[in-house]
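Supplementary Methods, section 5.1.

A reviewer requested that the exact input to the structure prediction be made available. We therefore reproduce it here, unchanged from the version used in the analyses.
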Amino acid sequence: ALAQSHRAAEALELLRPLAARVDSAADTAQQHAYWREFAYVTGAAQRRLESAQALKKAIALAEALGNKSEAASSASNLAGTLGQLGRIDEGRQHAERARRYAAELGDSTSAIVASIDMNLGMLSAASGRFGEALALLDGAQHKFDAGAARAWQAVCRNHLANTWLMLGQPARAHQVLPPD
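The structure derived from this sequence is encoded token-by-token as follows.
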């Protein structure tokens, strides 16, 4: 709740001292929950390297639990975080990993899959794969629209518009944005 209230630094101060105790005494499910939340809080606090490290732990713990949905979600978040750090190729690897988890679950339409496609689309645009980026972002947009995920609809539209701008196509960028 603190991180969502723009008080991520306070949340981090409360969570950080618990890490050693959680790793040594908690069961795998509790460890996973801790590292997933720690990743969220460090991301909200703009501490991307710490967030990436926590996401890697969360993925390993989700795998140990056999929870492919959580592994997919964390791998997608790691892909986005690595992209923000400029580690595009590594981010793409984790986005592809997240896609494999989702495919193993038979999931092709959920908000998690849309998020994975959006992250992979952003990473594709950053690596100059614009055709791939547009296809992924457009597909993600349709999935978000179908699920009525309003906040993610706006984020995805923004990334789609930015990709069109990167291609020097401001009119196409304008078309994907909602009317004023």
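The chain is about 80% helix and 0% strand. These observations are discussed further in the main text.
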